[in-house]
Amino acid sequence: MHRARGLWRAGVPAALGGSRAVSGGPGGGLGPEAEADPALLRASSPELARRLRGLALVRGGFVSDGEAAELLREVEPGLRRGRYQSDHWDRAITGYRETERGLRGGAGRALLLRVTPAFPPRRPPRPSAHVLDLLPEGSVGPHVDSVKFCGCTIAGVSLLSPSVLRLRSLRDPQDWLELLLEPGSLYVLRDASGPSQRPPSVY
């Protein structure tokens, strides 16, 4: 988590992300039937938007500025121990540092409680978070996330930097979805095919 000014650049297809975000699952009213804030989602066609209803959600203002600051204080110590790296193992990320942190502090525990309803009933998120911090010149390029690491439910909270998350279909490249992630917003991505588990993350 750092001073990145837009982890996702407009027009860049990618699997998931959001600068300075905590991933877990959405709370209060963010079950599979919940609707996203329409202004925060853009689809390549109305038909695609209908197909993805309930599978891709964005909620603005999910965490307050104060909550975001407390979450940052809880995860920052793990980041300070790492150096910024120029290249990720899969070459998808540049100018970054990352860590995995347990969400044991007050803000982290509260967030987990609020996001757990987004996950399948018997597959709650693990009480830890993947934290990704980009330099202002850092970037996340197009990539495909492994189901082994992502499972069927991904959720994240953008804490500091606005970003655009663009998803593009591998089967039908003309189909794309953009998630507009302002600081404090929550996004949730679900696979309609069945339950799995993904640990919470901070991006």
From TrEMBL:
Which SUPFAM superfamilies does its entry note? Clavaminate synthase-like
Which biological process annotations from GO are given for this protein? DNA damage response; fatty acid metabolic process
Q: Which cofactor does it need?
A: Fe(2+)
Q: Which GO terms describe its cellular component?
A: mitochondrial matrix
Q: Which domain of life is it from?
A: Eukaryota
> Which Gene3D superfamilies does the record cross-reference, listed alphabetically?
Alpha-ketoglutarate-dependent dioxygenase AlkB-like
Q: What is this protein called?
A: AlkB homolog 7
Give the organism, scientific name.
Zosterops borbonicus
